[in-house]
Amino acid sequence: MNEVGANKFGRVVLYIFLTLSALISIFPFYWMFVIGSNTNSEVNNMPPALIPGEFFIDNATKVFDRINFFGSLLNSFIISTAITFFVLFFCSLAGFAFAKIQFKGKNFFFIFLLATMMVPPQLGLIPSFMIISALDWVDKLQAVIVPGMVSAFGVFFMRQYVATSIPNDLMEAAKIDGCGNFRIYWNIVVPSIKPAFATLGIIQYMQSWNDFLWPLVVLKDASSHTIQIALRTLNDAYTTDYPMILAGTFMATIPILIVFLIFNRQFISGITEGAVKS
């Protein structure tokens, strides 16, 4: 009975801890909605408003009047989706090559790839912009999509996952049956690393959606702005309408939450895969 009681007490403590952690995680999103549904004067009161107000639609209307919200949202969706698709394809392909294919200089190239992760991306800002300008891609979405089509972290992540999840015996059996490297990748590797696709996909999608610096440099025209750049233009020179800004930010966060909820199960499976392997 004591052991049963101790187990029940431990489970209760665990559930309380998880509930509190969930509430703490959700609170910033709730607070964003509270500010976005009140007026500027109510937000500046002490103590500030703690419950949602009645002005969210009014503040959202201000956002729609000030910026091309849905156009910017569409640009962000196109950029994030395209970058995520190409990153998943190229990084999984490169990760498979580094993990399972023997070729000359493999270790050198892999170390060189990892070394690029230590270089701050800001150092490549000027030469990258010069290349984009020479290609006449300024104010075009491919100026953001093409440089982000491959990720060094993505290659490393996929290489580690493929190395631990694809048995060498399965590779040898496929080669005996006459499969080439790409067919092994497409028919054996891809179906086996779906949790890794979901994990890297969510990480990459969120990173692309929230990217600000590079799109700010190459997307100058308002029609090509991503949602992050469009939200920045809501700031006035002398006054700041926090409810309007937070209403726009709240609406811009919803697509990220939807993507996470869709791939939540695969994401959790991906990050816990190594913990349940024997």
Automatic annotation (TrEMBL):
Record field: transmembrane: 12-33, 77-98, 110-135, 141-163, 184-206, 242-263
Superkingdom as given in the UniProt entry: Bacteria
UniProt topology in membrane: Multi-pass membrane protein
InterPro entries: MetI-like, MetI-like_sf
Coiled coil: none
Gene3D superfamilies reported in the protein's UniProt record: MetI-like
Domain ABC transmembrane type-1 intervals: 73-263
Keyword Transport assigned: yes
Compartments, record wording: Cell membrane
Keywords of the record: Cell membrane, Membrane, Transmembrane, Transmembrane helix, Transport
Pfam families (UniProt xref): BPD_transp_1 (PF00528)
GO biological process: transmembrane transport
One Gene Ontology CC term in the entry: plasma membrane
Keyword Transport carried by entry: yes
Family classification: Belongs to the binding-protein-dependent transport system permease family.
Protein's name according to its UniProt entry: Cellobiose transport system permease protein
Protein's organism: Gracilibacillus halotolerans
